[in-house]
Amino acid sequence: MCSRIMEHKKTKKIKHAEHIDTVNKETYSDDVVFEEEDGMAGKMKKLKEKLDICATERQEYLDGWQRAKAELINFRKDQENRSKYLSDRVQSDLITEMLPTLDSFEMAFCNKEVWESIDKNWRIGVEYIHSQLLDILKRNGLVEVNPIKEMFDPKYHDSFELVDVAEKESDGKVVEVAQKGYLYKDKIIRAARVKVGRHRPK
């Protein structure tokens, strides 16, 4: 009888110990889970921080690259504009230096009676040279300003004399062009020297 009681007590102790061991294991398991969750949360936080840093650096690199690209484009445009300006300036200066030559041709042609008295073949040759020269200059941007019967415009005309006119409609208009003016690519390089009509009512 005593042995049965002792055995029963042993069995209860063993079961109690097993129960405690099971509880301890479950508690340890829960602690491990919590620790793993805490560790995972920490890793996720660090990973997010690294991603934020990468995103910031990426944006900085992108902004820097875009600025550099814009600066390069602007630099190229400035260089192109400067090159075009210098080219136009050189060409304009060259054409301006050739204007007296055109004036010489115009002076030779203005006296029709004298001009037509010259040998015809020689005259045709000179007229052809003048035509060629003028055509080349026009193809390169030269435009004649010959404002006869046009309203006087101080932007394009240089008045050196007022001439009394009988017709009222000629008042303020160019009645004579002493020297043609010229434009180069829409910019005045020499104003036309003109006489302007002035109507005075009687």
Layout of helices and strands:
Layout lengths: L1 H109 L1 H5 L3 H20 L2 E4 L11 E9 L8 E6 L1 E4 L2 E4 L1 E8 L3
Parallel strand pairs: 2-6
Antiparallel strand pairs: 1-4, 3-6, 4-5
What report would you give on this structure?
It is found in: Cytoplasm. GO terms for molecular function: adenyl-nucleotide exchange factor activity; protein homodimerization activity; protein-folding chaperone binding; unfolded protein binding. Homodimer. One of its GO terms (cellular component) is cytoplasm. This protein has 202 residues and is an alpha+beta fold. The protein has a domain at 143-202: Nucleotide Exchange Factor Grpe, Chain A, domain 2. It has helices spanning 2-110, 112-116, 120-139; strands spanning 142-145, 157-165, 174-179, 181-184, 187-190, 192-199. A hairpin with a 2-residue loop joins strand 4 and strand 5. Mean pLDDT is 82; it is low at 27-34.
Fraction in beta strands: 15-25%
CATH architectural designation of the domain at 143-202: Roll
Largest sheet: 3 strands, antiparallel
* DSSP strand tally: 6
How many distinct helices?
3
Overall pLDDT metric: 82
Query: Helices and strands, in N-to-C order?
Result: HHHEEEEEE
In whole angstroms, the N-to-C terminal distance is 164 Å
Pfam family, one: GrpE
GO cellular component, one term: cytoplasm
GO biological process, one term: protein folding
Keywords: Chaperone, Cytoplasm, Stress response
